[in-house]
Amino acid sequence: MSIRQLSPHIINQIAAGEVIERPASVVKELVENAVDAGASQIDVDVVDGGLSLIRVSDNGVGMSEGDLQLCVDRHATSKLKDDGLFAIDTLGFRGEALPSIGSIAKLSIQTRQEGGGGFSLSVEGGQRGEMRPAGVNVGTVIEVRDLFYTTPARLKFQKSMRAENSAILDVVKRLALAHRNIGVRLIAGERQSLNLPAVAIGDETGELNRLGKVMGAEFVHDALKIEALREDLTLNGFASLPTLHRSNNLMQYFFVNGRPIRDKQILGAIRGAYSDFLPSNRHPLLCLFLTLPPEKLDVNVHPAKAEVRFEDPGLVRGLLVGALRQAINEAGHRASAQGGAATLSAFQVGAGAFGEERFGEGFSEDEKNSFPVFGRGGHFGVSGQGDRVDGQAPLEGVNEPSGHVVALEDLGEHETLEGRPLGAARAHVFENYIVAQSDEGLVIVDGHAAHERIVYERLKKRVEAGQVPSQGLLIPEVIELDGARRDGLLAHVDALQEFGLYVEGFGPKAIAIQEVPALLKTANWPALISDLADEILEMDGTTTLKSRLDYVCATMACHGSVRSGRRLSGQEMDALLRDMEATPHSGQCNHGRPTYVALKLKDIERLFGR
After folding, report:
1. CB atoms within 10 A of CB 464
2. What's the CATH class of domain 8-196?
3. Distance CA 357, CA 340 (A)
4. Confidence (pLDDT) at 110
5. Is residue 47 packed enough to be buried (19+ CB in 10 Å), middle (13-18) or exposed (0-12)?
């Protein structure tokens, strides 16, 4: 078979197969062109998931008649200052998007520059039409109709209209977040899916509000500001508290020089920064912007420009992990603000929440109806079905010591426990939850989760310093384990000793614990040893317990902390609150859940119509 040169039409269709995977790919290319054109407002309209129509309108600089003629030729671009590919500061640069789109759809372009006349040009199935005058505003309007009509095989593999609209919305969101100074509007069918007004660069409140429209209002309240500089790299943006997380990483937006990317190294760095606070199947929310010299970045890695390559990936990873951990550390014991809001909403019970027997005997219907209740919106009023709750009986034995009591530090002359961030303990309910009163309101603490975090941080710090005191057992505790788990545990005897845990084999199906960490002397050792054995089996042969310090410490802390069901004394509760205030990250447990919720006094008073 002889070699022949492919026709320009086939070449364009091949290029379209690389660049245009679905309607969202078209939207991405056209919106990026609008951004590069200096637009301050971009409007996107799609019909039938973008397969019938995609229209992108911008108020950028527009094109001259000559530029319009060239823009539908392959590899014609205005976005490279020279022929170099190593200092790219625009979003597009390949010059393939418009000719590729024109080869598989009906493409129409209308444009006008300031002070000039307007022009229009169409391309259908790779066939260019005639240049015509057009009466349009300054800027460019591009319409793409009947996408993939020349490539029915590609059209057959497109997903549902809802799925395509969702993909388009995601693309527009990412580009809108990357360029906060540009107003963006998206209409899918007859529905306005997104409308983000422009925000001035540096307007932190405006940027957070814009993020809230994309990532949810809870992100605004639980966002940590990220600012870091290392050499000539700058990182800024917002990341969530560890207590605000999702089951996937779709709410992680990362931009490099204004370009949205999905990079495995970046995702791994984010996971590493939060590894001390979240399990592997949970993901934080964040929106981060990395700026670096264009020559230290290769964006010419992927046809869709979804991936980049850094000159020094280690420097980027170090900057990212360090900035995120610093922000989390500075948050101290702060917990999610959504816990208090969710708790308050639980009090807005409405009708029938406590059953028909809540009034007891002797109440007429009129008397029942006169009891004030709260509606869904939290307003005080009168309902036909009132609610009354009996008061809580005084707690018995709350001041009886039940274990080790840590002395409180001396208070200042004018300082009170209520003036502390977590207040003064007032009650221990359901044998787990501490109710405390502060100057600002009420604080409800999950005692087990809070103590688990405190023990974890102490143990981790001592292990890192090689200072874990151990305590010998008068009678060794023998624990039965099956062969594989026993052998795996005994293979890490030396590493376990660094954690203050001394074990040895005791027959073919058991181990004996000789010494335990003094910090965890009251732990449930059979359960702890069983969990540690499972952890070791899950690790590959090259991974050591030492390298998984956080996992081992978290497992040991969970079993060594105050258990639910144990009654605490008043002194113990106050000591736990003070320890929380002094312990970093005590606002969340080792599994990413909040350890306390705070209810503001003004919100509590609003519940009672005060």
Report:
1. 12
2. alpha beta
3. 29
4. 95
5. middle
